[in-house]
Amino acid sequence: MPAASRRTGTLLAALGVVAFSLTFPATVWGLEGFGPWSLVAVRSVLAALIAGACLLALRVPLPDRRHLAGLAVVAAGVVVGFPLLTTLALQTSTTAHAAVVVGLLPLTTALFSALRMGTRPSRTFWTAALAGAAAVVAFTVQQSGGALTTADLYLFGALLVCAAGYTEGGRLAGVMPGWQVIGWALVLCLPLSVPAAALALSYEPVRLSAHSVAGLLWVAAGSQFLGLVVWYRGMAAIGIPKASQLQLAQPLLTLVWSVLLLGEHLTVAAPLTAAAVLVCIAVTQRARG
């Protein structure tokens, strides 16, 4: 692969990570005015409307039937499963704690990729990936005191479904533009997300505020659509295992946003973990499969 293509792919994947790093703080803002089920359903509807408008405007043909199963996996993991489980977790968990638990996503995605696509990264790659994951786990244990909660179970479930969705989406992004992958996955969910939004809004109270509206708009347009567009394009360019390791930086970026946007306080361990994780990212980006 040309060096320019690798650089572009890495940049796109990194932009996706930046967009995703804002998801948890934006979700907390959204929960100030919406119930968890309403927030997830409405964000899915809004993101699907944006995606559908783009697909219609560009007259994109319907995806081949052979891709529908893969799109269903993306929809189940990325559009429904991950947003729902993490939103439920954030009702009782801080964004800092949730961010470091979900920091295990890169390793989980690499494992799914190896099983699904038969990729065989090098020993150096796996050593660096495991070291990065170990740093994230150590940070998580230090933050939570080693106690697992219901929120942690939601987050671990979110790891599994999201890794499956990322892996399948990365595979599909090799045969169709990445934005079409998430676009069609969102549109496919509309028959479920529209009635789900109507039902949730009828049961959960809505208290609109600047924070709740901004949070909803970001998780719908930024996290659910635009972030995934550049993320899947990046994965298609540089490969799922290497792209997934860029996400080791995501929990640390989320910690920064948590301080700036939510007023949470970081521990001394945060910069130490950041340094260890960034070293691991550098190693995995240089390792050859």
Outline the fold blueprint.
Elements: H1 3-21, H2 23-31, H3 36-57, H4 68-89, H5 95-102, H6 105-117, H7 123-144, H8 150-172, H9 178-188, H10 190-203, H11 210-238, H12 240-245, H13 250-262, H14 269-286
Q: Could you explain the architecture of this structure?
A:
- The protein has helices at 3-21, 23-31, 36-57, 68-89, 95-102, 105-117, 123-144, 150-172, 178-188, 190-203, 210-238, 240-245, 250-262, 269-286.
- By secondary structure, the chain is mainly alpha-helical.
- Helix 1 (3-21) packs parallel to helix 13, helix 2 packs antiparallel against helix 11 (210-238) and helix 5 runs antiparallel to helix 7 (123-144).
- The chain starts with a helix and ends with a helix.
- The relative contact order is 0.23.
What's the alpha carbon Rg, rounded to whole Å?
18 Å
Helix/sheet category: mainly alpha
Mean pLDDT: 86
- The H-and-E topology, N to C, reads as HHHHHHHHHHHHHH
The largest β sheet comes out as:
none
Overall morphology: globular
Please give the alpha-carbon distance between the first and last residues: 13 Å
Number of strands: 0
Count helical runs.
14
**Beta-strand level of the residues, as a percent range?**
under 5%
Helix content: over 70%
Which regions have little confidence, pLDDT < 50, spanning 5+ residues?
none
